[in-house]
Amino acid sequence: MKQLSVPVKAVLFTVAILILGSLSSFSVEWIRGVSIAEVYVEFNLPPLAPPRWLFGPAWGILYILLGIYCAKLSSVITNRQVIYYAMYGQLALNILWTVVFFSFANLWLASIMIVVMDSLVVWLLVLDQRRVKYLLIPYLAWLLFASYLSIAVLILN
Questions:
Q1: In the predicted model, is pLDDT for residue 2 greater than 70?
Q2: Whole-angstrom Cα distance, residue 4 to residue 13?
Q3: Cα–Cα distance measured from residue 22 to residue 92, given in angstroms and rounded to the nearest whole number
Q4: What is the mean pLDDT of residues 135-148?
Q5: If you write DSSP's letter for every residue of 106-133 in order, what string do you get?
Q6: SS percent in the chain: helix, strand, coil, step 5
Q7: Entry pTM
């Protein structure tokens, strides 16, 4: 069986991540009957809280970067198993975070989850010796900002 090229893998991973992220977002409407945007404006928000329209484009770009990173995981030699577990573990937490935070309004658990995601991405940046790891830096920056928002919403609500 022929191996898929990295660009093809990148497209497939990106599409899969975008679909999972979208399903996670749609879960709010399925479970609560309202959109994420409607839930977002109900919260007491901290200073620096961005407008709700910014989240879709930001996550779209970040999911593309994650798709490219995942496509290149097959080239990992050092710490391969740990890097796989950390990447897919944080990705699973990422997809589930929306459900926990917006659908079930469990702000404590969501805040713990996002701090674990932060830690796993930092760990990936330390363990992965390849240059492709730098694609994770914008993701980590956004995650840290999202952590601030998540914890602030927990405190303010």
A1: no
A2: 12
A3: 13
A4: 98
A5: -HHHHHHHHHHHHHHHHHHHHH--SGGG
A6: 80, 0, 20
A7: 0.91
